[in-house]
Structure formats: C-alpha cells, structure tokens
Amino acid sequence: ITLGALAKSPSNRYQTAAEMRSDVERSIAGMPIVSRQNHATEAIPFNAPTTAIPIVDGFPGTVAVAAPKKTNNRTRWFFTGFATVLAASLIFLLGDNLFNTGPETVAVPNVKSQTVEEATLALTDVGLVVGTQTPQADDNAPKGTIIGQDPAAGELIELGQAVNLIVSAGKDQTSVPDLVDLASTEDARLALTEARLVLGKVTPKDSDKPEGTVIEQLPAANTAVDIGTLVSITVSSGKVPVPNVVGATQTDAKNTLLNAGFLVEVIIEENGAVPENTVISQNPAADAVTLKGTTVTIKVSKLPIVVAPTPSPTVTTP
Fold first, then answer.
1. pLDDT tens digits, residue range 122-175?
2. What residue ranges are annotated as transmembrane (predicted)?
3. 240-279 burial, b if ≥16 CB within 10 A, otherwise e?
4. CA-to-CA distance for 147 and 175, rounded, in angstroms?
5. Whose CB among 206, 229, 232, 259 lies 3.0–4.6 Å from 200's, allowing a Cys bridge?
6. 105-168 sits in which CATH class?
7. What is the CATH architecture of 240-302?
8. Domain 173-237 carries which CATH code?
9. Angle of the 17-28 helix axis to the 73-94 helix axis, nearest 10
C-alpha cells in the first residue's frame, strides 16, 4: 500500500482516496489486495494454501506433504497495524497531492450592495483580486455600491483570479430645459416631463411680464441633474406698481401709464393753484401694485374761468 501511494509514476499511484481506503480495509481484514495493472508491488495474501511436493523415493502411491508453517498472529497483526497507521499518516500529510494535481480553487463571495472598498477587502480575504470597475447608472442603488459582479457569487475559480465589478453611478442624469418666458405653469410642467424631471414649487412674483409667465427657475437651464429632480419656478403675478404721474403734464402722464400697461381716464378739474394741464391726482395711487390693464384715473388741472364783474350803471346827475 505504501509503495503504491508513493510510486514514482502518477499512473501507478492510487487515483482516488476511496481506492486506497479499500486496500487498507482489505489489509486490516486479512484479505488479499486486489492487484492493479502496472503496480510495482503486489501484496501476497496471508494464509496462502500450501503446495504439495511429490516425493520421488517414497512408497509407491504416496505423496509427502510439507508440514504447514505456523503463523505468528502477533507478528501479523503488528505489521498490519503498522501499515494502517503509515497509510493514514500518508493520506493526512500528503492530502490532495496524491489525488489532485489541479490548481487550488475558492468560491467567489457575494459583494453586491457593498462599497468598492468593502468588496476589495472581501475578495482579498479569500485570495482573489478586484478586476475592472465599470460604472453604470442605477435609479435604486446608492452611488459607489456594487450592483453586479463577474464571476457570480458562489462560482469556483482559481486563487489569484480577478472578479470584475459593476459599480452604481447613481441615478441617470439629464439637462434642465430653459423654462423662462414660457407662457404658463402648464407649459413648464410639460417641458419638465419631457426631460424626465418634476415641477416643484411655483412662486408668484410681481413683474411686468404677463400674468403666469415664467420669470425664474431653479436649477438654472442646462444644469445636469439626476432624473426625477424637482425644478422650482417663479411666475409673474401680472401685477405691477403704478407709476407716479402727479405733477406731470397730461400728455406725459398718459404716455407713462400706457407704456406701463395701464389704461388712462382723464378728468379735467379747475384748479388755480397749479399750472393748467397738470396732473393733480391719480387713482390708483403711485406705487400701488395692480394688474396690467387696470384703468388709472388722473385729474388734470384747468384754470378757472374768470368772469369780469358787470360794471355798475352810470348815474347822471341832472
């Protein structure tokens, strides 16, 4: 058994542990070991039958038989036990070297959901290395975590081989569209939906733009953001402050109000305290905030008409 296990040629060694164990068990039981082709040594069974040898000079018709040799059971069991212990020791010490000539393998650990640093430690601990790291957008996995690996978890590969990783790059990104000057909140919502973004807070603000017009946005146009990001907008309330036209001439006052988007109503009022054709009051008052198109009433001065007194009749004295 020992010589078979240590045979120089691999083809003459035991090919499996089960084959060697079978011979050891047969040896312990005192049974002959099954011969195998190309073995350098074969065990001879114990208690082999004695061969009868003819005697030439004996009596006619008789055959002399050699006396059976006494077997020393103690010696037999000693060598059997020694061989068993030796064989077991060889199996323990030589291990896979007797039966396995291939490279050592290890199961690939599962590194999904780990960070790159954590995955590197996990692979190093079992004798593997990190291979390529490929970024890939993922709407669910946090940026920098592992979302894929090759080979897969549980596969057996040789020590020192690389495991390629797919790393989450976070959510896919898009560019924020330009919303300023869109006519309404609904127009802004549609533009954002096409860009896979979401309309956020809508804030009204006094502006000379028509009511509902988008006048500001955040984030700004062309900013790269994650898919699904909220975009807030500011829309014109359509209200603007009324210009101050008191003290202006009627013509100047009307032009100022019309250019600001207001309608004008003129009321002439006699007033001798100011020059004629001067605006003496307005409604709504100056700086009042109101919608464009509102009518602003202005009062314009007119000098009062002076009526000459009727001369007293001349009295002639006779």
1. 999 999 999 999 999 898 899 999 999 999 999 999 999 999 999 999 888 999
2. 77-95
3. bebbebeebebeebbebbeeeebebeeeeeebeeeeeebb
4. 25
5. 232
6. alpha beta
7. 2-Layer Sandwich (3.30)
8. 3.30.10.20
9. 170
